[in-house]
Design a protein that fits this description.
Layout: H1 32-94, H2 99-121, H3 131-137, H4 140-147
Helix pairs in contact: 1-2
Length: 151
């Protein structure tokens, strides 16, 4: 049976893989192993760079979905909150409360909600961003300069 890899190429000057004519046998150099190592390192670096780019693209898509979902959730929560405040206002108006009193109560409810959100998120900002990274990067001598007041 005639296989494609066993046939001689018809019009090509490049010999098939594994068959090198005696006249074209390259001379081995002492730098050949080093060149192969460098070529392998280049391929490995290229593969890692490709992996990083693909992973970054995936992370960017995930971030876009997260931001979009967060915006949609925020709109829905704000709509629900406003509907609840309006429902309370209509209920109070039906019970004989004046418009200014209902609007003032709605404003107080909104302010109370804002205070609760600020209070619950306050712990997020207790530490500076990248504090652990900056602590690892700083040299031990940097702490002595920060502790001493500038003269």
């Amino acid at each position: 049976m005639d296989r494609a890899y066993e046939r001689e190429p018809m019009h090509t000057s490049v010999p098939p893989l594994g068959r090198v004519p005696a006249s074209r046998v390259p001379e081995h150099s002492l730098l050949d192993p080093l060149e192969r190592v460098i070529a392998s390192l280049r391929r490995m670096a290229s593969n890692y760079a490709t992996l990083a780019v693909v992973d970054l693209r995936r992370a960017a898509v995930q971030l876009a979905w997260l931001v979009g979902s967060g915006i949609l959730i925020a709109v829905l929560v704000v709509t629900a909150w406003l509907a609840a405040v309006v429902a309370l206002g209509v209920l109070l108006l039906g019970n004989g409360m004046s418009w200014p009193a209902v609007l003032g109560l709605a404003a107080l409810l909104n302010l109370a909600g804002a205070v609760i959100v600020v209070w619950s998120v306050k712990h997020v900002f207790e530490e500076a961003p990248f504090a652990a990274t900056l602590k690892q990067i700083k040299s031990p001598g940097d702490d002595a300069h920060e502790a001493a007041p500038a003269a």
